[in-house]
Amino acid sequence: MPACLGSVLLRQAECVPIGRTETAVNNLNPVFGVKFKVDYHFEEVQKLKFALFDEDKCSSQLYEHDFLGEYICTLGVVCYMSHCSWSLSVTPFCICLSLITALELSDNRIITLTLCGRKLDKKDFFGKSDPYLEFHKQGDDGKWMLVHRTEVIKNTLDPVWKPFTVPLISLCNGDVDRSIKVLCYDYDNDGGHDFIGEFQTTVNKMSEAQNSLEIEFECINPKKQKKKKSYKNSGIIILKSCKVNQDTKSLIDIVGIDFTASNGNPREASSLHFINPLGSNEYLSAILAVGQIIQDYDTDKMFPALGFGAQLPPDWKVSHEFAINFDPTNPFCQGVEGIAQAYSVCLPHIRFYGPTNFSPIITHVARFATQALQQETAAQYFTLLIITDGVISDMDETRHAIVQAAKLPMSIIIIGVGNADFAAMEFLDGDSSVLRSYTGEEAVRDIVQFVPFRDFRNAPKETLAKSVLAELPQQVTQYFKQRNLSPSNTASE
């Protein structure tokens, strides 16, 4: 019973699993329905490993199963060749081909289908049928490729399948007139699934199933159709609903900038906030390097940018959560360049002060993340990027704020600039131990990533961004899984 595991190979041959297919029962030529999704970074050599196992036991542990073989390649090769087949390196066996398809996911539309069947052919001798559906799309080469497989509905000729959602680009490459073949099978435990029938359609045709209007497709078995003149069909597949929407998941990015006195007078060259003749400093470099990556995952590219630790005009009171554009009702900046511009304009109008308190700005973002919890789906995830130069003054309050924030859809990225002692930041990172509040409460997950800018001063900005964002995808997916949340399917009218 073959199953395939996909992994990403990092430095020193470390493997990070990216997914596992379903198990194909008693099948030497399996066609897996599960897809592996990997972000493609042009500037990196991204190695992939595909391993095949024969599942003999009811266990999720790979060592419990027989290893059949593996193949290692780069994602760049997959993207360049688009369709690839390779023999697996197997000892002592000699099997197996793997087909990989690479897609550029530029279309963010999703399609949700609700289907049922009526009077399907009876295939089981002692029962009815155990029907399921397979959706295949036609490639440019004319070949059909499996896109989605529904669940099996036991012992019925009138199945009702659960609604399912797939990216439109996966179903038809974003082409609503591309042919889609739907096959119906009767599931058998021995893997010899019986073919019931099939039909072809397009997204354009299926889109007619709206506003309580259902579409019926005759399920045709071509062999039976040729043999019997009286043959009509092998049942009816009914499309009850078809909805094509925009996938509205978004990453809400918020920037927090340290304006405490320990940074030095921004008018003096020794200050970390001093803007050199090239128009840059470590704060701006960090904002641009990280922001240019994460802004691609923000739907509107409007970023709230906040400052802390400075005295503000006209009364010169200290604030630890002020809008750097001085508009508290609309602290948003247009893109990363907008943040950089607001930062440069802000500098001469504030007085650097202190202390270096993190908890107010973390709590500020947590309030918005708490509001996101009221939604039924995981529509928003908040990322707070804090750029700072020194030791935290309110460590106990910050630890408590982070522990509470770990329950919310948010992550915290801290970039340390300058040459200060960042031991406290590394403690908050939580990679070596679980972070605890002063009350003793443990963080339910690690949401902090700390990176010292000095380690990347002479490195390409892509290297800094890669290190800073390394843990973010895992933190996002971990939160969704813990909360049992699904991606947002909000319609874009």
Short synopsis of the structure:
The chain has 493 residues and is of the alpha+beta class. Helix content is 20%, strand content 30%.
Quickly list its features:
493 residues; alpha+beta; Immunoglobulin-like; Rossmann fold; 3 domains; seven-stranded mixed sheet; 11 helices; 24 strands; disordered C terminus; C2 domain-containing protein; calcium
Structure in words:
With 493 residues, the protein is an alpha+beta fold. It folds into three domains: 2-101, Sandwich (Immunoglobulin-like), CATH 2.60.40; 109-246, Immunoglobulin-like (Sandwich), CATH 2.60.40; 250-483, Rossmann fold, CATH 3.40.50. Helices cover 20% and strands 30% of the residues. It contains eleven helices and 24 strands. Strands 15, 16, 19, 20, 22, 23 and 24 form a seven-stranded mixed sheet that branches. A hairpin with a 5-residue loop joins strand 8 (131-138) and strand 9 (144-149). Helix 5 (282-294) runs antiparallel to helix 6, helix 5 packs across helix 10 (461-468) and helix 7 (359-372) packs parallel to helix 8. The longest helix has 14 residues, at 359-372. The protein is elongated. Residues 91-100 and 487-493 have low confidence and may be disordered.
How large a portion of the residues is in β-strands, by DSSP E?
A: 25-35%
Structural class: alpha+beta
Assembly type of the chains comes to single chain
- Poorly predicted runs are 91-100, 487-493
The radius of gyration over CA amounts to 27 Å
Largest sheet: 7 strands, mixed
The backbone outline, from C-alpha atoms, is elongated
CATH fold name of the largest domain? Rossmann fold
CATH top level label of the largest domain: Alpha Beta
Helix content: 10-25%
Number of DSSP strands?
24
Give the name of the CATH architecture of the largest domain. 3-Layer(aba) Sandwich
- What is the CATH homologous superfamily assignment of the largest domain? von Willebrand factor, type A domain
Query: Could you report the average pLDDT, rounded to the nearest whole number?
Result: 83
From the N-terminal CA to the C-terminal CA, the straight-line distance is 45 Å
- How many helices does DSSP assign? 11
The tally of domains stands at 3
Protein name: C2 domain-containing protein
InterPro entries: C2_dom, C2_domain_sf, C2B_Copine, Copine, Copine_C, VWF_A, vWFA_dom_sf
Main location: membrane
Subcellular location: Cell membrane; Cytoplasm; Nucleus
